[in-house]
# Entry
Amino acid sequence: MTKTNPILTTIDYEKEGKQTGYLRLPHSVHRSAYGWLPFPVACIRNGEGPTALLLSGTHGDEYEGQVTLSKLIHQLEPKDIKGRLIILPMLNFPAAKAGLRTSPIDELNLNRVYPGDPEGTPTLVIAHYVENVLMPMADYGLDLHSGGSSLHYIPSTVGALETDEDRLGEIQRLMKVFGAPYSFFFPGGHAGGSGNHAARRQNLVMFGTEMGGSGTVTPECLKICEEGVRRFLSEIGILKNSGVAPAEKETRMLHAPDFNFFCYADGDGLFEPVARLGTEVNKGDLAGYVHTPETPGSGPEPMYFDAGGVVVCQRIPGRIMRGDCLYHLGCDF
# Structure
């Protein structure tokens, strides 16, 4: 027996025009016995054409995508498009409202729990709704991320390695149209239960972004994100006029063949980085030092890279624990 998702919506996805409203997830707590969690949603439809699903706020401390999609909802009108846009700028609303990577209600990471569970906690319910209600409506998708509070990325489009060559080729083509300076593919086995896994199951052509981070928004990353989304929507035939020029430089395709391309802390302390974002490093190069000021007189512990490539991501907080990701690299794909 198929389980029914409890989320209701104040909008009609089949209706022409522009609608804004909320997904309503019943949430009974002490302060509100018959309350619901409001997940913001917009639907813009104009005639026949493809459908694109645009997501941000999967992780609540990643703001570049939330700003980009909020502006897009405000700016676009039905006359500007052909087809349908479904936009959720704060997909994991409890996390986005709190500015946290994971939900403060159930402490789950939305990008690790697909396909979700309609009878589970709020994060599981929203994952189920996205995969089983929204994704089947769509032809294309974008899931906008950044490094959040703990990481900073060079502006990149990102995806998972695909075994289907045609699907991989189409994703790469659209990444080039998006026009971020870099495009990056994670190794197999990374981030099980992600939106990419859901999109593959639903035959949805989708990729994501990593646009900066550090728990803030920069004009440079925001410009790349906003212009890339418009190029993407124009290329798939939804946005009639992107209003932006093609990217000045072709995106550099990178991937991490395995987890040797990730540099992890091997102890607790304060991290002193040496490598910089966007630079090329070799296997065995110094990544940085771990200091333990709580042990007076102790010397710094050097950290080294286990692979060579471009530094695409760096940890931001100085205080680290064993197992924290300090850097990760990409090599040409």
